[in-house]
Design goal:
Length: 196
């Protein structure tokens, strides 16, 4: 089996270089480009050069792209940005998105500080996620950082403390109720006097 690899160049009708690539079977690759690349209808000429090995072809491709700056190559095309045509609506949406993203990034330290306080005060990661629109995983990580233990352990400890507090209240109520009822009377049945 041959390791020969094709280095191909695609040009438009004005002989402007559109794309440089490598392949072992050019016809198949050109069909893929025709199906996937919106710029394919501009292709008027194809030059194919065969190189001994795939490694040599990859090196030649990188060098050719860097030196010749084809219009549509993205990788290895340093210094020759792809000229994208955008509608005014796209430009406005992107600018709006950028403003909102920058504002969100500016608020993030304050949000995280308040989230840490909320976690310490007993807020759940689900509540924080609902309030902020961030994912629960963001707050699970924050909780690990706040407590230094996995969130499940911290939540179990918090739940145990709540259960303990409820039990203590129940015991206190029972003690108060017994104090109100008074000591059991001796009746020989073993039941308090009022329960006979």
């Amino acid at each position: 089996m041959s390791n020969h690899t094709a280095l191909y160049r695609l040009y438009d009708s004005d002989d402007q270089l559109l794309y440089i690539g490598i392949t072992t079977y050019p016809p198949k690759r050109f069909v893929e480009h025709e199906r996937d690349k919106p710029w394919w209808p501009q292709v008027a000429r194809r030059d194919v050069e065969w190189i001994e090995s795939r490694t040599q072809a990859e090196t030649a491709e990188r060098c050719a792209i860097a030196a010749e700056g084809p219009k549509y190559n993205r990788i290895h095309n340093i210094g020759h940005p792809i000229a994208a045509e955008m509608s005014s609506e796209s430009v406005a949406v992107f600018a709006n998105y950028k403003r909102h993203r920058e504002a969100r990034l500016a608020l993030e330290p304050s949000v995280m500080e308040l989230a840490d306080r909320g976690l310490k005060a007993g807020a759940t990661v689900g509540q924080l996620a609902a309030w902020t629109g961030l994912t629960p995983e963001v707050f699970r990580r924050r909780a690990r950082a706040v407590w230094g233990v996995p969130v499940a352990v911290a939540l179990m400890a918090r739940r145990a403390a709540r259960v303990w507090a409820v039990r203590v209240r129940m015991v206190r109520r029972a003690v108060r109720a017994l104090a109100f009822i008074g000591p059991p009377e001796s009746s020989g049945t073993g039941l308090p006097g009022r329960c006979r």
